[in-house]
Amino acid sequence: MAPKKDPSERRGRGRPQSFDRKEALCAAMRLFWDRGYEGTSFDDLISVMKISASSFYNAFGSKEALYHEVIETYMSVAGGWFLDILGEDADTRTVFQDLTTAAAVEFTRPDQPAGCMISVAATQCSPNQHRLRDLLASQRTQAEGAMAACLQQGLEVGDLPTGTDIEALAAFYGSLLRGMAVQARDGASQERLMEIARFGMNAWPKA
C-alpha cells in the first residue's frame, strides 16, 4: 500500500503573499511548541496562521518545510537570549550562572508555552520522523558547540582549571538545560528551576 501523503505536501502556483509571513510563522511556532509536530494538524495550522490552504501551499510547500522555518524563527525570536548570554563580557562561571538562571525564567514565562521548543520537541517526535529528529539533533549540537566555544575561551584566560574536559562540561550544561525544559513542561515552577540551576552550578570545576 502506498504511504499516506501529508495533506500539506502540495504546491500551488506562485502568487503574491497576502499575509504577514513573520506573524504567520510566530503563530505556527507557538502551536508546534505547544502541541508538537505530530500533534499539530494542518487545519489547526492554517487556522492560527490566518491563511487559506492555497496560501499555505504557495508560501511554505509542506508542513515539514514550515516546521524547518519555524525552528529558525524560534531561535531568533524566542531563543535569542541563549547566544546573547554566551556573548556576555563576564567571567565564564558568571556567564553559565546567568545562562541557567535565565533558562529558569524563559522556560516558565506565562506568555509562551512552557520549556524550550527544541528540547520538548525531541520528546514528542516519533522515531519514524528521521529528518525532523536530525534537525532537532543538529540544533542541540549547535547549542552545545556554542557553549563549548565559550568554555574554551574561559579555559584559555584561566577561568577554568587546566585539563578541564570542555566537551563533557558543555554536554553537562546542555543536558541540564534540556532537563530544566522538560521539568517546566511538566509544570515545575520558576523557583524549582532556579533551585535546579543552583545545584547545576555546583558542578563547576574548582580551580
Automatic annotation (TrEMBL):
Record InterPro entries: Homeodomain-like_sf (IPR009057), HTH_TetR (IPR001647), Tet_transcr_reg_TetR-rel_C_sf (IPR036271), TetR_C (IPR011075)
Keyword S-adenosyl-L-methionine: no
HTH tetR-type domain ranges (all copies): 18-78
GO molecular function per UniProt: DNA binding
Pfam family of the protein (one): TetR_N
DNA-binding region range list: 41-60
Keyword Transcription appears in the UniProt entry: yes
Keyword terms of this UniProt record: DNA-binding, Transcription, Transcription regulation
Descriptive protein name: TetR family transcriptional regulator
Organism: Gluconobacter cerinus
Upper taxonomic lineage: Bacteria, Pseudomonadati, Pseudomonadota, Alphaproteobacteria, Acetobacterales
